[in-house]
């Protein structure tokens, strides 16, 4: 007898991470994009179609507005929008899995990390589960931070990056992330106490850029600039550009990572330096 697939509502299915995970998970569960009360794809801050929640077995929350960096927008959209969603899911007894970030930890500097941390607490307090991936990558189409790096590699023969030998990043393959999220949805894994899912050994941003350049067959000269000087330079450029601002907060989150991650004990099978 065929096993009945779970019906899992999902937010953020139009983004790079969400689109990949929705396609990956669809083989094992019914991934259903969450709709708002007008029947359109739900966005943070929208009113929900409560009928969807009544028929759902779980909710995977992957949505996050990365285009805002001010608290007067982050609070009503990302934080309050997520909190309302999580609480309404609890009202309908729908368990929530929230995709957070390694940028979220006590003492983090970025607004992105601090906002994710606030939402994490709401999720856990309402009986949900969280997972913190590292810098995500896939073997197919590149998006997110790596997508931006790939564009730089295509455009520029010389690339300056904010990096030091001591500042390193933990990588997370999206296929492996999808597998562990599936285990969480199926109730086979609980990692709230140690929520980081990423490669154990971190690598420098310079190494990441060089690896992408080799993959693209674009020989690039990559040199490191101390992060403080790099961010100061971007801040000055922002002042000159006025409203056309370069997003700095995400960079702050990358450069000021947690020193001792609480790994969940399960690590990605695919490794960036070997399998990219």
UniProtKB/TrEMBL annotation:
Transmembrane segment boundaries: none
Pfam families: Epimerase (PF01370)
Domain NAD-dependent epimerase/dehydratase: 8-106
Domain of life (superkingdom): Bacteria
Stated name of the protein: NAD-dependent epimerase/dehydratase domain-containing protein
Organism ancestry: Bacteria, Pseudomonadati, Pseudomonadota, Gammaproteobacteria, Methylococcales
């Amino acid at each position: 007898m065929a096993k009945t697939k779970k019906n899992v509502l999902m937010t953020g299915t139009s983004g790079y991470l969400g689109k990949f995970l929705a396609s990956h998970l669809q083989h094992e569960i019914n991934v259903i994009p969450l709709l708002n009360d007008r029947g359109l794809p739900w966005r943070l801050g929208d009113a929900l179609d409560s009928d969807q929640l009544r028929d759902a077995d779980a909710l995977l929350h992957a949505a996050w507005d990365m285009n805002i960096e001010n608290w007067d927008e982050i609070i009503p959209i990302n934080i309050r929008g997520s909190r309302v969603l999580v609480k309404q899911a609890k009202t309908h007894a729908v368990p929530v899995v929230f995709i957070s970030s390694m940028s979220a930890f006590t003492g983090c500097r970025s607004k992105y990390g601090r906002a994710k941390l606030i939402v994490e607490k709401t999720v856990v307090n309402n009986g949900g589960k969280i997972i913190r991936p590292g810098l995500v990558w896939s073997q197919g189409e590149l998006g997110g931070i790596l997508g931006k790096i790939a564009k730089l590699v295509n455009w520029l023969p010389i690339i300056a990056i904010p990096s030091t030998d001591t500042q390193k990043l933990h990588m997370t393959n999206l296929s492996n992330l999808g597998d562990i999220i599936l285990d969480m949805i199926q109730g086979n894994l609980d990692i709230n106490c140690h929520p980081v899912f990423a490669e154990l050994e971190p690598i420098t941003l310079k190494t990441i850029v060089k690896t992408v350049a080799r993959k693209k067959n674009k020989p690039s000269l990559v040199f490191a600039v101390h992060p403080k000087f790099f961010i100061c330079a971007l801040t000055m450029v922002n002042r000159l550009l006025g409203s056309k601002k370069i997003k700095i907060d995400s960079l702050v989150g990358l450069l000021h990572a947690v020193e001792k991650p609480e790994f969940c004990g399960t690590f990605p099978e695919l490794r960036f330096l070997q399998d990219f």
